Amino acid sequence: MQPAPEPRTPPPPNSRWHHEPARATARLGPLAPAQTRRPNFVGLVQDGAGGRTLVTTTAPHMPLRPLWLCRACAAPWPCGSARVTLLREYAHDRVALLVYLGGQLHDAAEQLYRLNPNDGPNPKQLFDRFLGWARLR
Questions:
Q1: 39-67 burial string, b = 16+ CB within 10 Å, else e?
Q2: Half-sphere exposure of 116 toward its Cβ, with a 13 Å CA cutoff?
Q3: How would you class 123 by CB atoms within 10 Å of its CB: exposed for 0-12, middle for 13-18, buried for 19 or more?
Q4: pLDDT higher for 96 or 135?
Q5: Theoretical Cys-Cys bridge with 52: which of 34, 44, 124, 125, CB 3.0 to 4.6 Å?
């Protein structure tokens, strides 16, 4: 009999792909588990009996690179839900939020330009999309 395989641990998050909510979680408490989060509406599909079935997802609102669309709702990232989540996670450290979003803006500008170099992203629109909503007031 073979020994049971050891459980695989997930790789550590890469700072370019994942924001770390530990600081905010320590102050605000943990986010709701995936089972209790409100699902995102995806759409209705026809089932075999002529009715419709609601399709939902609880996928996190993270960017789909290199398109920079939200993985959960397909809106330009950061979408409204991602903005709310980021504001909650960085509620007590707005400067850290701006640093994180500045890095995301840098990556997005590079990747979006590579996708379409002839009609690259407008810098003002990218700034407003990534940093304009999160500025210190």
A1: ebeeeeeeeeeeeeeeeeeeebbbbebee
A2: 8
A3: exposed
A4: 96
A5: 44
The model's pLDDT over 55-73, given as tens digits with 9 standing for 90+, comes to 555 678 999 999 999 999 9
Look at the pTM and tell me if it is higher than 0.85. no
Count Cα neighbours of 105 within 13 Å in the Cβ-side half-sphere: 19
What separation in angstroms does the CA of 137 have from each of 10, 98, 133?
38, 12, 10
Torsion of CA 123, 114, 68, 108, to 10 degrees: -50
The 3-class secondary structure across the chain, one letter per residue, is CCCCCCCCCCCCCCCCCCCCCHHHHHHHCCCCCCCCCCCEEEEEEECCCCCEEEEEECCCCCEECCCCEECCCCCECCCHHHHHHHHHHCCCCHHHHHHHHHHHHHHHHHHHHHHCCCCCCCHHHHHHHHCHHHCCC
**Crossing angle, helix 94-115 and helix 80-89, to 10 degrees?**
150
Of the pLDDT bands very low, low, confident and very high (cuts 50, 70, 90), residue 26 is: very low
